[in-house]
Design a protein that fits this description.
About 20% of the residues are buried. The protein has 4 helices and 7 strands, in the order ααββαβββββα. The chain is globular, with a radius of gyration of 22 Å. The longest helix has about 35 residues. It has a single domain, classed as Immunoglobulin-like. By secondary structure, it is of the alpha+beta class. β6 and β7 form a beta hairpin. It starts with a helix and ends in a 6-residue tail after the last helix. About 40% of the residues lie in helices and about 25% in strands. It has a 7-stranded antiparallel β-sheet.
């Protein structure tokens, strides 16, 4: 009986220590995410909240079509495959932008469709100092998040390939 009590106490202690360690890991992960956030530390203007998780989940589960319309690039792009749409959603980091840095201009707008309806629009910023998404209603910013590294790689590759196909030099 005494051994059973001792073993139960050891098992309970191990569960307690394990849960404490998991809590510390979450804190470290959050601290790391906060270190990434000051990408646009020199930003000015009103603070824009992060894209709500509910919206991202809705787009992940229900989005049927993406359109990209670029302002000065010699192409546009559409995607209707679920895997491509979901990959594109992963280009939007969970790290909030805060505010739009002065001097940053969007390269285009991304339209998110469910069925035949546009349910969300985001300005896409992709230049040397500006790599983020700003969800808008018309021209009013609603949400803003930093672009993930995968998103940066995607846009860099896509822009280079489009310019190579047209025989032009891609902008730096």
């Amino acid at each position: 009986m005494r051994n059973l009590y001792f073993c139960s106490l050891i098992a309970l202690l191990m569960v307690f220590v394990s849960s404490c360690t998991n809590g510390d890991t979450k804190t470290t992960t959050n601290a790391t995410a906060e270190k990434v956030a000051p990408v646009q530390a020199a930003a000015s203007g009103p603070q824009i909240p992060s894209v709500p998780q509910e919206l991202m989940l809705k787009l992940y589960d229900e989005c049927t079509y993406l359109d990209y319309i670029f302002h000065d690039l010699p192409f546009s792009m559409s995607q209707d495959e679920t895997s491509s749409i979901r990959a594109n959603l992963n280009y939007i980091s969970t790290t909030p932008l805060g505010s739009i840095p002065s001097g940053c201009k969007p390269i285009g707008r991304q339209f998110f469709h469910i069925g035949g309806d546009i349910v969300a629009e985001a300005n896409v910023y992709f230049s040397k100092e500006c790599k983020f998404y700003v969800f808008v209603d018309g021209e009013t910013p609603l949400y803003a998040n930093v672009m993930s590294q995968e998103g940066e790689n995607f846009f860099m590759t896509m822009i280079k390939q489009a310019f190579q196909a047209s025989g032009q030099q891609a902008p730096q």
